[in-house]
Amino acid sequence: MQEPLCCEVTAIDYCGCGYSDFCRPTEASAVADVLATLDQADASFEEVIVWGHSLGTGIALSALSKLLESGRRCKGLVLEAPFLSLPRAASALVTPAAWPDFREGLSRRLARIMGHLQFDSASKICLVAEKMPVTILHGTQDTKVPFEQGQRLSEMGAVPLHSFPCGHNDIAKQPQLSGAQRHPDRIKRLYLLAALEVEKFKNKTLDAQMTGATQGTMTTAQTLQSLVTQDQSVSSDRALESPWRGCEAFHIYLLAQRQLYEGQHEQAMKTSLRLSEYEDILDTQTIYSLIALTTYYNKFFAQCSRAFIKLEASSDVSDEMRTKFADLALSIFTRNAPRDPASHMLPCPKCGTRINDWNITCSSCNHRLAFCVASGRSIFPEDRNASHPYPPGTGGGETIKCRCCRHRMYSNEVRKLRNCPLCHSRLDVTAMHTPSVPH
Ligand SMILES: [Zn+2]
Ligand SMILES: [Zn+2]
Known about the structure:
Blueprint: H1 2-5, H2 27-40, E1 49-53, H3 55-69, E2 76-80, H4 86-94, H5 100-113, H6 125-131, E3 134-139, H7 147-157, E4 161-164, H8 175-178, H9 184-214, H10 220-233, H11 238-241, H12 245-261, H13 265-273, H14 284-297, H15 301-313, H16 319-333, E5 345-347, E6 354-356, E7 399-401, E8 408-410, E9 433-434
Parallel strand pairs: 1-2, 2-3, 3-4
Antiparallel strand pairs: 5-6, 7-8, 7-9
Helix pairs in contact: 2-3, 3-6, 4-5, 6-7, 9-10, 9-12, 12-13, 13-14, 14-15, 15-16
């Protein structure tokens, strides 16, 4: 975001959240945190755009109405997936929309019970929208805060609403906002920073639990229990569950493109086929047009036709593009039968069934194969039955593991590299040889 908008981004860890977990959060403490951050900012208030997501929308509106009381204002406000008030958002989670009266009754009851945790955005939107530009973004498939609440808020404040065909946490990933095609390298870097932060946060949570629970000694059983609970307590969000996925997706996308432009068509195909595992991060057209192109170059017409089926059936591809893909598919497959050529077979690391060296999952046991972050190829164990060594570029062989991101790569691919291709941290190649065993 920084470069295209020429702005700096500051994110806040509210008291009681993230690294600032030494106090109990309240509406007042969260508002105070925003105002303190604004006071600390290098820019004047008039230059700052406040962006709140979910609960942050309530905090942002409360903080800005407080700011207005003192005669100051900001440059603008973005509300991403906002609610009318916290009790109303909570009641919508448990009551079907078909029972509006019951929902209203429940939200009034919750408002009484929740005391000073109200975040009554509905009562503040008009006041704030009068003094500064406000924009609302909301996913139509949001299951945490219903889309109708964002819509209602936009009507009340007469502010623009932008809707997206996605859920609560996915607006930032929408292609029209993310610019994924234009700046994949920047987005990979952002995901990498996020992944490293999540790792740091996980280690911190774990450390705190270990020290808190033990006072010096801990049995193996307690240690295990603590690890299990820790994992559950930080795994509610998919990003925390697997912080590296976003980084992997953009890394693979960039790698496949580089291989394609360097004329390594077979490698580019093996790498791009792997993108189908990242449909939650990259959009259909980005993934499957690259797969269609690389499989076409390699005459893998069965894989190619599967990619075209995805492109023609996807609702997030525009009608115009879908028609173009359908015409292109027709001209390709009237001349070429949808069949793949024979390829080198290697044993699945889990069940031993021999599968194509370009497979990303085992066709027999469904095991998801780990991949080499340097070449994009699936990682196979040493093939003891092979009478001669692996042909170059097919897979198999010795691997090493990066100490920082814990991803693996074939040692013969990284002989000349000093840094991990995925996380860019320094590789200690001599110390890291590990046998090529199942992940
Ligand atoms: Zn298998
Ligand atoms: Zn790494």
